[in-house]
């Protein structure tokens, strides 16, 4: 059945599928990088080699000499701020999402090389790609290049999950668990009526982006991003937070609930700087008015992975001040948006995140319990 | 806990102004020792302690280390601790203590020795622990973690069967608890997330005799880490799994389990209330859409998402009572939203929306547009059940006015475009409706099925069938196979209204094959985002086919299809109605009548049956005319745009000789026919 459907997927949506097809055929004919997924690990250094060589023809801050360094070149690509800022500027160009865009093709080929470290480099830029893509839909710009990358990520996740849904069975505390005992005699846990929730439904293969599946495809790409998020540089996460704000179409700062006023004041300064920087970015790259113009529909299939990523940015183990400021700004905007949509589930989740990030800033909640009691009497 | 010879916490209250050290019942001021330490002379400091308090080398070193640590000289403390051979000390402790464990029964003899050994263990473990803390403060997190781990390894070696509950030395237990808590923190800070995961599990799954507070802190820390670190922990080791107990499959499940345990501990009064636990649980359960579990746990909930809207609304009514928080804007909006979905609650919803409007001030002003929108939606719903024409048109125009006003506040909200489109379409202002439907599709990039369906319905109402078909075709291209059901149904109906029965049957056949394939290939976990239930889909195929065969007067086929439809949906007014239509078509008038009446018993507001009963009665004899007229008026009250009702009402007026009324009715019927969609507009909502 799935074979069947994927082949018929190809024959739809004239505009996207044609450009998509040409895109794919171009890559197969021109590229030597299209190494099959089951390539032996020994080819990994040559993969990296080729990826960097082809990137150096697109991005001036990348030079092939990088390969002679001691440092792992893939790691360097992932973390070098000069490279990411140049790539980001290139992505922000008005026609960057087109099917014949070199950078998009580099992303596509690089991800298909199945080299885990290189795939991380592609994921690093997913926030910008997905952000621009969704905001540009209504502008009717060519987007086949972005779509090809997103579909590659979607296909990767579909394969690695074998299309299976991800579910959560919410525990029933009247049955014992590994972390607690129960007074009742242990019955068969399998007979217990657990609340089964679907976190991410099963995945069907998609050869093209159909408009009604767009949110799902991007959502799954974000799920993939989330699964690698602890390897992502802070800059990538900040990019993501900025786009959340854009997507929400709400300026979280003017619409305070009162409840979140305090942390707002704490972060206001930094926040403004962030905004300024962001607008600078925009001006540098051809004055595309994405800011506040990119409001998109936020169905749960997209919003849920977004919230998980924001949860990581706000409350994850790596406490980076700039990131936390960007993430709480994003959260405020999404909270405001969920009020406008009167979406109870989103209100609950975003409000909890905001409250938690506020609590995290409160010094009373940050007592170090591992410190020994300080006393002037020291005894043996 | 058993007290020990060491300083009790009560002593902390009347602390001396300068530091002093206690050992073997002797007290000594530290100023002299500190001076030596400041000169960098550890040896001399050590010997003055040994002399002054009659200590051995290790004891003196441990005391010095602690002194330096407390003075904030972590580097010096580290230096002091390095001077002790801790490994040897641990090894010395092992056999003696495990022997003691075995001869625990000979208490009177063993007790003092036992205490001494525990004391020695405590000394050594504390030294290692402080070494770890010193390393942490110096930013050498990996080394710190390794030292801290040594404390735990040592405890496991010394106490084979876990730490005994009652006999343990206070201070030893404190050190152990702190080390258990510190280790995952250290790995986390060092960026070694997998080690942190196993440290958390080790803390929670082994016997450390932790008190409720520190255990809860670790559980919460672990839950937060599971939720937000982005690192998948994998399932716990098999050793930890007890038969018949719940074992979480992945991070989210494990985090939810831990948080629920924490909430229960609070409910039992074992730990102090920590609001962040509830927020974390709220976040986690919202992600799963399992807010009803949360509601059960707390019996209070953000209403509207548990699917049990009635219960939610009742809670909201209570919280909006004038003695509670009548001005809570979010509650007002939520209540209005729930009411806007049910025409019998719409009047109540209008009240909430108006209160929300007047409360949307100051920093909440941005929600004014939302409140106005809710007022519009509730008015529109209320119009449908209003008893008089006058009232209805007043409410309808109010609804339009509100939605138009709302869009000036919420320019970027495409939902409003859709709602305006439906409202105009229902009032048969088709050109305006068409404009909004197109805008909605543009604004959403065609990503929502309902937009395509609205556009096709409006075009069909304008009798622009081929254009409607083009729209459906485009929508089918933008839709994954499994979600094409509603579109295929529309396509078949479009074919039917164009008198293309063979093509309609072909569409239905494809639709049916799709539904059946879908049922085979998916379990219960398939995507339900925009799709409908399979059974509903299949029912629609058979019912649509029955209707088609009726038009072709293929009674046998019609009967088969109806039978299939009935299997899927018993006691449906719609099926019984179609059955009646079939009987009437075959000339079995009385049976048809009783079918219609049965259908009305199932659903008293089922309009098509009312119309057919009215029509049949009007043909019978003049005595039945008043009854026919009243039932048709009733049908028009429910559905004022039903052209058939107007048509038969016109016939009754004509028979009764009220020609002018008859003309009005026929005219209404005619006008409505020109703007009749193939499916009711409200079927999209």
Automatic annotation (TrEMBL), chain A:
GO biological process: phosphatidylinositol phosphate biosynthetic process; protein localization to plasma membrane
The keyword Phosphoprotein appears for this protein: no
Any Pfam family matching the protein: Hyccin
GO cellular component, one term: cytosol
Main location: membrane
Domain of life of the native organism: Eukaryota
Subcellular localization: Cell membrane; Cytoplasm, Cytosol
Keywords: Cell membrane, Cytoplasm, Membrane
Family note: Belongs to the Hyccin family.
Record-given protein name: Hyccin
From TrEMBL, chain B:
Superkingdom of source: Eukaryota
Annotated PROSITE patterns: TPR
Record region (Disordered): 1-20
Positions annotated as TPR repeat: 573-606
Pfam families: TPR_16 (PF13432)
Keywords noted in UniProt: TPR repeat
InterPro entries documented for this protein: NPG1-like, TPR-like_helical_dom_sf, TPR_rpt
Name the record gives this protein: Uncharacterized protein
């Amino acid at each position: 059945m799935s074979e069947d459907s994927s082949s018929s997927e190809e024959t739809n949506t004239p505009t996207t599928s044609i450009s998509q097809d040409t895109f794919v055929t171009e890559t197969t004919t021109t590229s030597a990088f299209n190494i099959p997924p089951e390539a032996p690990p020994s080819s990994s250094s040559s993969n990296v080699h080729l990826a960097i060589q082809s990137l150096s023809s697109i991005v001036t801050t990348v030079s092939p000499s990088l390969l002679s360094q001691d440092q792992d070149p893939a790691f360097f690509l992932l973390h070098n701020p000069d490279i990411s800022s140049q790539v980001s500027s290139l992505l922000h160009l008005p026609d960057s999402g087109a099917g014949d865009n070199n950078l998009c093709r580099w992303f596509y080929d690089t991800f298909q090389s199945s080299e885990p470290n290189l795939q991380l480099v592609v994921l690093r830029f997913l926030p910008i790609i997905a952000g621009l893509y969704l905001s540009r839909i209504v502008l009717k710009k060519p987007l086949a290049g972005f779509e090809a990358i997103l579909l590659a990520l979607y296909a990767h996740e579909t394969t690695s999950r074998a299309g299976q849904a991800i579910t959560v069975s919410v525990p029933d505390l009247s049955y014992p668990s590994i972390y607690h005992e129960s007074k009742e005699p242990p019955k068969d846990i399998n007979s217990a009526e657990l609340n089964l929730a679907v976190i991410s439904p099963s995945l069907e293969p998609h050869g093209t982006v159909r408009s009604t599946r767009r949110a799902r495809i991007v959502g799954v790409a974000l799920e993939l991003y989330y699964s690698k998020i602890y390897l992502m540089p802070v800059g990538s996460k900040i990019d993501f937070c900025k786009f959340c704000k854009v997507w929400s179409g709400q300026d979280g700062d003017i619409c305070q609930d009162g409840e979140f006023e305090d942390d707002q004041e704490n972060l206001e300064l930094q926040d403004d700087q962030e905004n300024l920087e962001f607008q600078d970015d925009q001006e540098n790259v051809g004055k595309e008015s994405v800011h506040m113009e990119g409001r998109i529909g936020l169905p749960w299939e997209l919003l849920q992975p977004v919230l998980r990523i924001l949860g990581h940015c706000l409350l994850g183990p790596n406490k980076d001040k700039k990131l936390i400021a960007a993430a709480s700004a994003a959260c405020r905007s999404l909270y405001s948006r969920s009020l406008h949509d009167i979406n109870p589930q989103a209100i609950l989740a975003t409000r909890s995140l905001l409250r938690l990030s506020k609590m995290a800033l409160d010094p009373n909640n940050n007592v170090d319990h591992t410190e020994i009691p300080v006393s002037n009497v020291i005894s043996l | 806990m058993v007290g020990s010879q060491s300083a009790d916490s009560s002593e902390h209250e009347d602390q001396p102004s300068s530091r002093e050290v206690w050992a073997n019942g002797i007290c000594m001021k530290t100023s002299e020792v500190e001076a030596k330490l400041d000169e960098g002379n550890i040896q001399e400091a050590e010997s003055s302690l040994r002399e002054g308090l009659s200590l051995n080398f290790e004891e003196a070193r441990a005391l010095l280390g602690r002194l330096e640590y407390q003075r904030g000289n972590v580097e010096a403390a580290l230096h002091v601790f390095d001077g002790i051979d801790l490994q040897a000390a641990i090894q010395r402790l092992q056999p003696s203590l495990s022997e003691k464990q075995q001869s625990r029964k000979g208490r009177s003899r063993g007790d003092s020795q036992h205490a001494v050994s525990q004391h020695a263990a405590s000394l050594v473990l504390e030294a290692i622990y402080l070494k770890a803390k010193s390393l942490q403060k110096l930013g050498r997190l990996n080394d710190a973690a390794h030292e801290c781990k040594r404390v735990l390894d040592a405890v496991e070696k010394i106490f084979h069967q876990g730490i005994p509950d009652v006999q343990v030395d206070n201070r030893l237990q404190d050190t152990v608890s702190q080390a258990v808590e510190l280790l995952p923190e250290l790995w986390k800070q060092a960026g070694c997330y997998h080690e942190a995961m196993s440290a958390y599990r080790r803390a929670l799954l082994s016997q450390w005799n932790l008190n409720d507070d520190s255990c809860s802190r670790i559980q919460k820390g672990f839950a937060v880490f599971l939720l937000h670190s982005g690192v998948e922990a994998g399932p716990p080791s098999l050793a930890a799994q007890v038969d018949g107990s719940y074992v979480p499959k992945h991070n989210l499940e494990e985090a939810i389990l831990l948080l629920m345990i924490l909430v229960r501990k609070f409910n039992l009064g074992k730990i102090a209330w920590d609001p962040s636990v509830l927020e974390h649980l709220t976040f986690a359960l919202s992600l799963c859409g399992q807010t009803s579990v949360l509601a059960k746990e707390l019996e209070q909930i953000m209403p509207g998402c548990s699917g049990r809207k009635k219960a939610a609304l009742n809670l909201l009514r209570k919280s909006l009572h004038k003695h509670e928080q009548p001005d809570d804007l979010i509650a007002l909006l939520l209540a209005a939203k729930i009411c806007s979905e049910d025409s019998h609650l719409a009047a109540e919803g209008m009240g909430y929306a108006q209160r929300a409007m007047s409360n949307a001030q100051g920093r909440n002003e941005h929600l004014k547009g939302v409140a106005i929108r809710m007022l519009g939606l509730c008015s529109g719903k209320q119009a449908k059940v209003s008893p008089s024409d006058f009232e209805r048109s007043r409410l309808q125009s109010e609804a339009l006015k509100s939605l138009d006003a709302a869009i000036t506040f919420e320019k970027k909200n495409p939902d409003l475009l859709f709602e305006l489109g439906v409202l105009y379409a229902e009032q048969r202002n088709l050109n305006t409706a068409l404009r909004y439907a197109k805008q909605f599709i543009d604004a959403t990039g065609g990503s929502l099925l309902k937009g395509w369906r609205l556009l096709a319905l409006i075009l069909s109402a304008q009798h622009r069938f081929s254009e409607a078909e083009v729209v459906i075709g485009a929508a089918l291209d933008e839709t994954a196979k499994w979600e094409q059901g509603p579109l295929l149904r529309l396509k078949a109906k479009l074919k039917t209204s164009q008198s293309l029965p063979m093509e309609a049957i072909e569409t239905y056949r494809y639709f049916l094959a799709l539904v059946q394939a879908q049922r085979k290939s998916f379990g219960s976990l398939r995507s339900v985002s925009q799709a409908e239930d399979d059974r509903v889909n299949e029912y629609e195929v058979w019912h649509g086919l029955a209707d088609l065969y009726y038009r072709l007067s293929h009674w046998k086929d019609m009967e088969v299809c109806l039978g299939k439809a009935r299997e899927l949906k018993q006691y449906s007014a719609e099926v019984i109605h179609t059955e009646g239509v079939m009987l009437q078509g075959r000339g079995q008038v009385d049976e048809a009548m009783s079918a219609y009446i049965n259908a009305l018993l199932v659903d008293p507001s089922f309009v098509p049956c009312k119309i057919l009963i009215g029509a049949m009665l009007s043909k019978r004899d003049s005595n039945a005319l008043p009854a026919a007229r009243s039932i048709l008026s009733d049908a028009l009250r429910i559905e004022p745009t039903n052209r058939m009702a107007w048509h038969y009402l016109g016939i009754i007026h004509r028979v009764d000789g009220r020609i002018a009324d008859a003309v009005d009715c026929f005219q209404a019927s005619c006008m409505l026919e020109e703007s009749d969609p193939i499916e009711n507009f409200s079927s999209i909502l």
